[in-house]
Amino acid sequence: MAAAKPIAKPVDSSRADFSAQLIAWQRSHGRHTLPWQNTRDPYRVWLSEIMLQQTQVATVLGYYERFLARFPDVRALAAATLDDVFALWSGLGYYSRARNLHACARRVVADHGGAFPSTSEALMTLPGIGRSTSAAIAAFCFGERVAILDGNVKRVLTRVLAFEGDLAEGAQERALWAAATELLPHKGIEPYTQGLMDLGATVCLARSPSCLLCPVQSHCAAASAGSQERYPIKTRKLKRSAREHVWLWLIWQGRVWLIQRPDKGVWAGLWSLPEFASTLAFDEASSVWPGSGDALPSFTHVLTHLDWTLHPVRWNLPARTTQAQIDRLVAAWPTGRWFDQNEALAAGLPAPLRKLLLGSPG
Ligand code: SF4
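# iron/sulfur cluster complex -> structure
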């Protein structure tokens, strides 16, 4: 086991000064017009927090508005089907978020009478709400004095503190949480929390942070040492892998056969195309099918841990194919059914499949 690294240093100047400068900067230079700001409605704040995990603000904006238009409150979301939620989430990625969102809405309605709990501790017991998300909701909606530590905030605080701990280690991550909690101001938790988020998103960027514009530069140990890009330290890198499949776009009488993916793994729960592990496996299976196929351009879909190369084949079954032949053919994919084009486009589809059906794969 690696030797314990020094845990966070205290900020050299006073903590009150650090938070006061951050709050003043947030008020004059921070973001104030995002659609999930200027509200204390936990539903709206929660929705934005979940959508913003691993996703840029610019991407989230349109999804957020469409989602609220369709599901204006937690009861409307709880009453929806998971398919409806996936359909609106389609293209935003990390689909377990959509599944948890739906499960969480149902729990809020079933167990809390449709009102989100008002403490970070209780919020954390709900599906898909981790420590940082629960803290953001509790701080913004209920004024709770509690620390957040999302990716951007980790970057800011590890730099300010020149935090040498390796965040791949649980003990070091806990030490950073403790340091973040110690820094909390006694007043102004909302602008302080928003200020940390804004600083991470607009000034303290991963590459080339704009330290000259930073309101807490005089407190920042990494800036004074010129070692900003050393932080945060996290040694364990995700291993990337690659895989390939033939992707079958099976068409009969103008409809496409889609299968629902398993509840776990890539594109969990979404509607997608049947896959074959190799061209050989596909050629063997399709040798007895009526009709013929066209190979479409292959493309690689890049996921967090995986480069997935797909080789789509559009296979047209003749209109005269009998029901018995069809039943035999699709028996291999029991979670599937036929969709017409409009129905398919309204379903929860992975982004590459939506593009493929619209005529632009990749
Ligand atoms: Fe980040 Fe630079 Fe500000 Fe330090 S001084 S918090 S490195 S932007």
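# post-check
The pocket of iron/sulfur cluster is lined by residues 156, 159-160, 203-204, 209, 211, 214, 216-217, 220, 222-223, 228 (CB under 6 Å).
The CA atoms of residues 10 and 161 lie 7 Å apart.
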